[in-house]
Design brief:
The structure is a homodimer of 263-residue chains. By secondary structure, the first copy, chain A, is α/β, with parallel strands linked by helices. Chain A is built from eleven helices and 15 strands. Chain A folds into two domains: 61 residues, Arc Repressor Mutant, subunit A; 178 residues, Rossmann fold, CATH 3.40.50.1360. In chain A, the strands form four sheets. The first copy, chain A, has a seven-stranded parallel beta sheet with strand order 6-5-4-9-12-14-15, sandwiched between helices. In chain A, a hairpin with a 2-residue loop joins β2 and β3. In chain A, α9 runs parallel beside α10. At the A-B interface, α1, α8, β6, β7 and α9 of A face α8, β6, β7 and α9 of B. β6 of chain A pairs antiparallel with β7 of chain B, so a sheet runs across the interface. Chain B binds a DNA duplex (30 and 30 nucleotides) through α3.
Chain lengths: 263, 263
DNA sequence: ATGTTTATGATTACTTTTGATTATAGACGG
DNA sequence: CCGTCTATAATCAAAAGTAATCATAAACAT
């Protein structure tokens, strides 16, 4: 086998398996670890993979993220904490629905840790991150691609949602308010969210503190429609109390918090 | 044999076998290794092959992004020509359906040239390539992700297809035969292809010559179900005649052919 | 026919690839 | 924070492959 052939097979191997250790590749391709390391270095230069200690992972997971028109890069760590906390409400074997959005996207690495999961989503970006996870059954919701958010929305999506039933839906929003409920800028996207909530036994809203008391254009539900709201510890105390008194179950994912042990 | 003849045979050999070592080529063509190396150098200058230590591999396999679980990387240039030719059957404003597959994937760069198109597809890979094209309305077919081929298939996909109607469907196949019809290895994928053909006013099959007279596991249609078969100029003459006599409209996309000027 | 150009094969010097070895750097647990 | 362990980079020698050179033979032009 030529070096170039081996390199292309290594790249393929890593992309398909999602990873590849130096030792593993060395025995698979019957060359020394030195050679594997040299190959990995070159493949990394070509931006095909990303090296790690002990091996390499596909580049795409690093590559993909931006291209988001609605690229809210603020409150990154808050969103991560919210996603981590949310993971505690997922059990092996669950069928879960994940809405598109920057917060929900952080669920991807958490989902990968499960060994048996069915994930339904309308997020192209999430799909991208999970597409090579062999332990996850992925169901893509069909419909029209909204390029600004890389979300699949519209009547086709709504139609499919009417025929599906999931355990838990993780929904994102642009605004949550007691008076105006849950709101988002796009009418069609709002409608799709409405159907998402309808087909789930339980709805969990993921929204960092910046969304609190914000009102966007189109309403897709009220606070009474959600079973739980997971947010971060920068949420002002008085807002927490106001929503609590109104009957909303708020979970605060703070930095030192451990993951809840399943609902 | 003239040097040029030998060179073109070497190039063909490498492309069809996917590789060729200097020693192997030297014994096959009964010339010294020096001569083979000289030939390979010239072929590389012409961008027909890529040299490696010990031999050479096809140029396309280097060029093509290997992020595909799908293996078939052979006959790249044939597939490109088929896709280019197929582009001639697309008009501005059309609503077209594109099946997943390595041949159909080559349609992506051609579609980008249009300024008003609606593309319906079940191919994750195609979707990825088009997702930021603002002049294309993209409709993703929903359903389960089949990881081996990165195609969306299954009952949900079929259900959506029953509610859609498109101008032209571009379908890929693993085998086309007069007796066994159109066949593919996966049962569920076959069913989805069947629905695809059903919802299109016109069905165009894209299949390079290597698919001719091949029979795979599951049949999704007969040659009578397609309106046109676009293939490459390596299709043996007798196969062309056999299919033509049986009433199949075959278009051969050869290297010197200009693009047809819309159906 | 004769000199010139071109293609080819053989020979030799050089380059690349590879695996082994050793020194350095990074990760991990206490 | 530290020592220990493992992974990596750097180095080197052997093997494999290649480029450069030259001589011969064939094709070509005058």
């Amino acid at each position: 086998m030529f070096g170039e052939e081996r390199k292309s097979m290594i790249s393929k191997y890593i992309i398909e398996h999602g990873r590849g250790s130096v030792l593993e590749l060395s025995t698979t391709f019957k060359v020394s670890e030195s050679t594997i390391r040299r190959d990995l270095k070159e493949l990394e230069d070509e931006k095909l993979i990303k090296r790690t200690h002990g091996g390499a992972i596909p580049f795409e997971s690093v590559n993909f993220e931006p291209t988001f028109g609605e690229k809210e890069i603020r409150y990154q760590s808050e969103k991560e904490r919210i996603a981590l906390y949310s993971g505690g409400f997922i059990q092996e074997g669950d069928i879960i629905l994940i809405d598109s959005g920057t917060t929900t996207l952080h669920l991807a690495p958490i989902l990968k840790a499960f060994s048996n999961l069915t994930v339904v989503t309308n997020s192209m970006t999430l799909m991208e991150q999970l597409k090579n996870e062999s332990n996850i059954d992925i169901v893509m919701l069909g419909g029209s691609l909204r390029q600004e958010t890389q979300a699949i929305v519209g009547p086709i999506t709504d139609q499919i949602l009417q025929t599906l039933h999931v355990d838990t839906a993780f929904i994102a929003t642009n605004g949550i308010s007691l008076s105006a409920g849950l709101t988002t800028p796009n009418l069609i996207e709002a409608n799709t969210k409405r159907y998402m909530m309808k087909c789930a036994k339980r709805t969990i809203l993921l929204a960092d503190h910046s969304k609190a008391e914000k009102i966007s254009f189109s309403q897709f539900g009220t606070v009474a429609d959600i079973d739980m709201w997971i947010t971060d510890d920068h949420l002002p105390k008085e807002i927490y109390q106001k929503f609590s008194e109104a009957g909303t179950e708020i979970h605060v994912a703070n930095s030192h918090h451990t993951i809840p042990t399943v609902s």
